[in-house]
Amino acid sequence: MSIAFGNPDRPNSYIGKTVPRPNAEKLVQGRGRYVDDITLPRMVHVAFVRSQLAHARITGIDTEAAKAVKGVLRVFTGPDLAEVCTPWVGVLAHLKGLKSPPQHALAVDRACWVGEPVVAVVATTRAAAEEAATLVEVDYDPLPAVTDTMTALDPDTPLIHPDLGDNLAFQRLHEEGDVDAALAEAHKVVSARFRTARHTGVTLEPRSILVDWNPAEGQMTAWHATQAPHMMQTVLATHLDIPESRVRVICGDVGGSYGIKVHVYPDEVATAAIARVMARPVKFIADRLESFTSDIHARDHEIEARIAVAEDGKILAIDVDDWTGIGPYSVYPRTSAIEGNQVVNLCGGPYDFANYRAQTTVVFQNKAPTCQYRAVGHPIAVAITEGLVDMAAAAIGMDPVEIRRRNMYADDAYPVTSPAKMRFEGLSHHASMNKLMEMIDYDALRADQAEARKQGKHRGIGIASFIELTNPSPFMYGIGGARISAQDGCTVRMDPDGSVVALSGVTEQGQGTEAMLSQVVAEGVGVTPDKVRVITGDTQVTPYGGGTWASRGAGIGGEAALQAARALRESILAVAASMLQADAGKLDIRAGQVVDADSGEERMPLEELGRIVYFRGDTLPKDLPRELVQTRHFITMDYPFAFTNGVQASYLEVDTDTGVVTLLKHWCVEDCGRVINPQLVDEQIRGGIVQGLGGALYEEIHYDEDGQLLNGSMADYLVPMAGEMPDMQIGHVETPTGESELGAKGAGEAGTAGAPAAVMNAINDALRPMGAQVTEMPFTPERILRALGKIDD
Amino acid sequence: MTAAFSDKVDIELTVNGEPVEGRVPAGQHLVDFLRQTLGLTGAHASCEHGVCGACTLRVDGQAVRGCLMLAAQADGAEVWTVEGLTEQGSSRDLQQAFVARNALQCGFCTPGMIVAAEDLLARGGVPSRAEIREHLSGNYCRCTGYEAIVDAVEDVAQARAGKGTA
Fold first, then answer.
1. Taking burial as the number of CB atoms within 10 A of a residue's CB, which of A583, A661, B16, B159 is the most buried?
2. A24-32+487-634 adopts what CATH topology?
């Protein structure tokens, strides 16, 4: 029996409704339990001495003064930990040619970026560990630092890793059709240089891990602020030589992730290695200042791109040359080539065109490593594509909405394969654009813009269509050899009181995963959501799964939960049918009651069924299956990824005297397939938009030419504040995926994907009458004034 | 260590209405004393340099950064944390509004956000959305995009004002 999603009045209709998050109440009361809230007996604290040079040979380490500090127990150097922890290499087989050197938990011989951990100091208090860390004397022999992406491959640029032969980590060229011919014959060719700034996630909870090694049990337990507990279980087991079954990773409340907490960090592995050596609990909580130099960075791209269009606005070709600098190591195990690879995969995404060429060149640098951060590659690809489309529209005198309508895949064209060889099962670009036009009242907005212009106010409207990659299959990491599960599982059981417990391999970082699971399971079984208790984030307890990243929680974890819940429903009904001498097919479960499916008449509460099964099983037929627990796993098979689509609009005002941009309003229409919880989806999109707006207007990590990080504090690295952010209106079109019964795709990254491009286009819409244009993010007052020619020094 | 430069300080204060005594390291921040010594882990240490607001506490009626104030400075003070506000019930409506509006995701900023919002609401009246946004600009949230928080605070301001005039 399938769920009649089209009928909102169906029984147990929790999927598609806003239900409260079961874990929100404890968080507003300050009763969350984040890693730093946990204190264990005999627990010690570790602080790290980090390289202050971007590239240097380590010639000596003097730890005597540090060891003399009261409370200090041990000091570890790179060679010390290398004895108990093997190095790792961040490559994947399907990213052909990707190379990276072995990376250690603590630098051995050589430090390669400012912030790389070099020495670990363990003390009874964090304050003592931090104080002692400042007393460790490391002698460095400076080496030349490579900091510029575009010259990293020049013959006279020093090599960061001489053994690798060059500073090239990865390069991929994709060509489809005949780009050169299309460029030569086009009515107009528009080219531009784009830049997206290096930025970082700034999770409010810094990276946190607490690891205990119990030699008596031969078991390691890690309380870890992570998105992927099972992946971390494998990593710790592999590099610390512990059987995988003897590593337990527990992920309780996590204070924000956005991709930052899905990677393997040397200081976190070092913490586990130290716990292994000291056989007692060791806690590492990153200090905010070291977060800026040691959390992954992202989005440091420079792009030359061209678009060729016909007289009628049809896109003839897109040509993209993307460069990115990733730091000295490709991050393990997901690699730092994925972001550039995504740019190649996603440019031109919404549009039906024939000739496409894109190359990404990924180089090593002596800066903090970059890796996957929310909406990986999307904000870059969308900025390139939508920036070019707007410029082309201006060049041929066409409305930006009209040029998009002339090029977007028709809503009935699917399935299609894009020039980037991405396969789209079903998207809704036109329906989404139509909905957006209604929401923003495009004509009225244009009239307001014109009226404002008369008063000397320069307002702009920016549109950005986009696609978003969600629900990844093993094509993302598994085929490259990484032990990262694309499959996910859920175990659902009914307890004697008729309540239901769901154990899931996906994790909660605040998105509302547990609420989503509770309503899916509630509907699948036939109980109210408050009767479902959700357990996530414990590798010893939950089914094996991938965790939460790449917008997979609802689409993959939700489907596994639905199938497990439906299976449990069948098990319950089989027992009920026996007890009631009825046909299981004519019974249903509604709000915790076994009922007659046709009349709705209540036949038996679930707690009565539970009482009989668990305490009076003797009264049931001997051969009756009575397992009130079911597990199902789900993996996508038909498509490598479930693409979603959407379109955003930004309305803003540029002060041409100060260069300050004021965001007036922001809109997003998103098609993430079946919406399970409208409020949670809207809030994911709003939060994502604001992270994108941060990248568009404020966020930029600055390094000098020696590789020194210049703005590594919250006071210097700007993130969006409440006062600067606009209200955001969110709308939906629903095109469920046919891969699952639930039909859900991901929604976590759409906001971040499209917001920077929408803002860029809006600023350029405002500036166009003055002949000015900006393409380098963030769009700071200085950059806008330079574009206007008001600063030229 | 001479007596004149003792690295420990004796303090007596009131925390969430209960008397507390402690002998604290001179350099210990108030938020660390609350979290580590008293087990009040509701206030969070995030930036530890006074920018993000995750450690916001109420000290003698003022919203204060727990990472900028030393525990030793709290001698004689009256300190309230989110745990105390919860037990006292004075922020019940605001907490309910946060849950109803999903004005929190990861929840790490939320205790500080609640204390900061109460600081604004205590002034009475119904602040405009722009005033709410301005007041909360010392409290960073990376998850929500702020709109839901503004909605929740606005709802509570209106409800409290309505009660006041009824």
1. A661
2. Aldehyde Oxidoreductase; domain 4 (3.30.365)
> What is the per-residue pLDDT across A728-786, written as a single tens digit (0 to 9) for each?
999 999 999 999 999 999 999 999 999 999 999 999 999 999 999 999 999 999 999 99
Q: DSSP letters of A516-544?
A: HHHHHHHHHHTS-GGGEEEEESBTTTSPP
Could you tell me how far CA A527 lies from the centroid of its own chain?
32
Partners of residue A57 on adjacent β-strands: A110, A141
Are B50 and B96 found together in one domain? Answer: no
Task: Please check whether residue B12 lies inside any domain of the structure.
Answer: yes
My answer on whether B60 and B105 are in the same domain is: no
With a cut of 70, say whether residue A469 has pLDDT above it. yes
Longest Cα–Cα distance in chain B: 62
Which residue spans within A70-228 are E strands per DSSP? 72-77, 110-111, 117-123, 137-142, 168-176, 188-196, 199-200, 208-214, 219-224
Q: How many Cβ atoms from other residues are within 10 Å of residue A506's Cβ?
A: 33
| Rounded Cα–Cα distance for residues A494 and A500 (Å) | 5
Residue type at A320 in one-letter notation = V
The tally of domains found in chain B comes to: 2
* Contact yes or no for A30 and B45 at CB 8 A: no
Mutate to test the interface with B, among A29, A682, A711 (most CBs of B within 10 A): A29
In this structure, what token pair is assigned to residue A479? 């085929």
> Are the beta carbons of A351 and A427 closer than 8 angstroms?
no
Q: What is the CATH T-level fold of the domain A377-472+638-787, as seen in this structure? A: Aldehyde Oxidoreductase; domain 4 (3.30.365)
Among residues A642, A732, A644, the alpha carbon closest in space to that of A681 is found at A732
CATH number of residue B150's parent domain: 1.10.150.120
As a whole number, mean pLDDT of residues A666-683 equals: 98
Of B40, B102, B149, Cβ closest to residue A680:
B102
Amino acid identity, position A534: V
Two structure tokens written together for A280? 């007692």
Is the full-model pTM beyond 0.90? yes
C-alpha distance from B165 to closest chain A C-alpha (Å): 28
Termini Cα distance of chain B? 62
State the Cα–Cα distance between residues A464 and A351, nearest whole angstrom. Answer: 12
Please tell me the distance from the alpha carbon of residue A46 to that of residue A36, in angstroms, as a whole number. Answer: 13
Q: CB contact, 8 Å: B70 with chain A?
A: no
pLDDT of residue A20: 87
Q: Does B120 touch chain A (CB under 8 A)?
A: no
Query: What's the CA gap between A760 and A464, in Å, rounded?
Result: 9
The confidence score (pLDDT) of residue B164 equals 55
Chain B closest-CA separation from residue A494 CA (Å) = 27
- A35-143+206-254+260-294 — its CATH code? 3.90.1170.50
